[in-house]
Amino acid sequence: MSIDLIVHSANQVLTLAGDAPKRGATQGDLAILRDGALAIRGERIIAVGDTRELLARADAQTRTIDARGKIVLPGFVDAHTHAVFAGDRAHEFEMRLQGASYLDIQKAGGGIMSTVRATRAATVDALVAQSRARLDALLAHGTTTAEVKTGYGLDTATELKMLDAIAALDAEHALDLVPTFLGAHVVPEEFKGREEEYVALVVEEMLPGIDRRPKTEDRKHPSSVVGRPSFCDVFCDDGAFTLAQTRKILTRAKELGFGLRVHADEFANLGAATLAAELGAASADHLMVTRREEMRAMAQANVVAVLLPGTTFGLGKTNFADGRAFVEENVPVALASDLNPGTCWCESMPFVIALACRYEKLTPAEAIVAATINAAYSLRIADRVGSLAPGKLADALIADVPDYRHLAYRFGANPIATVIKRGKIILDPPK
User: Is the pTM of this model over 0.85?
Assistant: First the structure.
């Protein structure tokens, strides 16, 4: 049986073999092969093993890449992004430097609503054009699968427009996208003082309408899930949605068969992490002020903690999520960029890994697990991506470092030398 591509002679192949999710004592299990190799046919991995054994199976048509002195690992899975939007909020960054808080800016009509106004005004084509460059940067830094949320529409028409843009990008771009509906991002300005009416709109119009949205079948990535979103998310926090409102939205979403995610405990603890456990959510994200007893509830319910250290850094804050506590409480930990225009315009998962090790007290191995197989598990796609195993998609990275610890030890440059996405080689992405 022929082999299209063999990546061989790597110092380390981080296979991350084993069942997802990894947690507690196994959170840092990389399952490393020394002098390892990866064999690919078409879009799939067909073998992972010893370099000499796999090279012996090559024929004249087999392409080879010598990864001597480097490491090979799965493509990063970014489990929380807001990568599709219009405009920017650079002026708000300057306002924060001058002392304005996130909530101050939001109350003054800026923040999320600033991006909502720009996104409502943009066409689908404009959204695709502006977002394409961000996906290029994600891919160049090693992300091969990314979750992308709506939530800059906050009316039915624009939320659907965002889903159209996400579907168009997924169809044309090498990156695979997993869509999440975030119609409950904040209450839009036109519903000020009528918050319950907006919740009713989400529950009674948006969710049923999006539930009827068909999956697209004639795409270049037929196994991806685009069209009807895979998940529904709610931002439960001060200045966003209350716990009762969050429960109402997520309960309806669950009835309609959506997976659940929740922005929880970013600024204030309203009980969203416990609600995520109660409702069986796939993930709770942010979690800067989550208590130990809530972590234990998440662990029991198998809710993945998606930590977003880039956001805390982007806000110039120091209250990073306690990643070590989540590991100690046996919660599966994932990492994500939270790429967004307001608080964290960051496309680099290696930088997120570096932050998580320094400020959230993960080890380099734990952070790599968090950025690959555990992130994939939180998106319910760990059977396809997140580790290097026969039968999985051939999403792999060659990093120009001699040891996996360098992915966290070094920062500020791009360590990814080669990206392989669905078996296709993307060489020398921009540093």
Answer: yes
